[in-house]
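Handout, section B. The chain below has 249 residues.
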Amino acid sequence: MFGFLPIVSPERLVRRFAPLVDYLAQRLHVDIRMETAPDFGAFLRRTQTERRYDILFTAPHFYYLAQHAAGYRALVRVGRPGMRAVIVVPRRSAIRRLADLRGRRLATTDPMALATVLVRQSLVRGGLDPDRDLTLVATPSHNASLLSAYQGRTDAAALMLPLFHHAPARIVRSMRIVAETGSSPHMPISVAPWIGAAFAARLRSVLMEMPSTGRGGRLLRKLDWPAFVRVGPHDYDALAAIARQVHGE
């Protein structure tokens, strides 16, 4: 079972990642089923207590929890620099900077999502109290957050930058970025502790060799990823504070 964090709607998740799952299944000669969860909290429970996912594609701070609470080990990560969230507004909006969000409604993803945590940190650094100076409106996914601002239900939206770029072109063209957050390491692919070293090594090799195969290279270009790169056991340790914060510790 390959677990995918519900970063977008299930339909978009399947469209985006099912070709990768099919590719891995064929190259590894095993059956791999793709699965997500109704929300971030359920995904965490399925990862940490239900032992549901053999392979995991999750947010960096959720991986930290999976590593330390459930023994997952990262094999590779997306070969891009750090992940950032953005705050976007309709192009005609009077909002030009963080301070202009005071008294406004900002659509966010799940409160546990990396985008939400990074945006809250940026608001605080910008002199705003996220719980008092504006209203954070939780939505089911990043694309739902974006649509909320696009359709005028909220004044602005927060979501991860790559997901903003992959939104429909008409929506991207109609929106404007007013702020970017700090960054974190990119999303890893990890395996559960019950997955043997031999299979894990094969999986890592297939993922890292994708750019050199015709089909693999095409899949990566469609995902807008250059490659997968190897990660070490401590590459996500800097996310400890964020991970514990969302976990309520």
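Note. The chain has a mean pLDDT of 92. Compare this with the example in section A.
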